Amino acid sequence: MSKKKRESGLWTYIQSLGILEQGSPEEIAAAKKAYWKTYHQQHRRTQREEKPEFLVALDRADGTYNTISIGAKRHTLTIPAFLRTATLAYLTQAYVVPNHEYIAHLEQLLSQCSNEIAALAGSKDKYFWQRDQKIEAIEQRIERLEREVSELFRNPPTLETTVRKAIQQSPEIKERLLTLLSSL
Question: Which of 9, 48, 168, 182 keeps 20 to 30 A from 59, CA to CA?
Fold first, then answer.
């Protein structure tokens, strides 16, 4: 037998029982079965300690299951992954990105646009300095737009932040909001 086999836990277990020298094939098979049963029990116990699991019941009658299922599909996640992601996002006050692929595609388009402008800027004529400045300004604007879009999709502002910002930009909104809220 190979050295690796003789150093395995199964081999050590069977050796400690002394079945190899004087046991029948049935006794060896039973010892192997007992070893693997104990091994799997210990493995499951360790897994439960390291990664606790929780059972969540979703009721179809009140629409809980359908709501969560639709949300998981919209985010292209399994239901357990969606529940985990949504819970962590709620607790950290972060945003669950609905479609990572779509956002990555949008970022890629913005990046390609920026690269095309950079290529145009690379072939500048030295005598047309105004055109060069315009191209640089466009390039900077697209780069800033790319950063803003990425940040907005990944970490959108809270409703409170949005309202405060709107009120700062236009104070008459505060009056309209107060009127609206008082009418409810």
Answer: 48
Neighbouring CB atoms inside 10 A of 74's CB total 12
Spatial CA neighbour of 42 closest among 13, 62, 65, 6: 13
Per residue in 70-115, pLDDT (tens digit) is 989 888 889 999 999 999 988 988 778 776 766 777 778 778 777 7
> Could you write out the three-class secondary structure of the chain?
CCHHHHCCHHHHHHHHHCHHHHCCHHHHHHHHHHHHHHHHHHHHHHHHHHCCCCCCCCCCCCCHHHHHHHHHHHCCCCHHHHHHHHHHHHHCCCCCCCCHHHHHHHHHHHHHHHHHHHHHHHCCCCCCHHHHHHHHHHHHHHHHHHHHHHHHHHCCCCHHHHHHHHHHHCCHHHHHHHHHHHHC
Tell me the pTM. Answer: 0.46
Q: Which tokens sit at 115? A: 């690269």
pLDDT given for residue 7 in this prediction: 63
Q: Is 42 left (phi over 0), alpha (psi -120 to 50) or beta?
A: alpha
Residue 75 to residue 131: CA distance in whole angstroms: 43
What's the token pair of residue 156?
A: 């959108």
For the chain, the average pLDDT equals 81
Higher pLDDT, 74 or 20: 74
Enter the tokens of residue 123.
């072939």
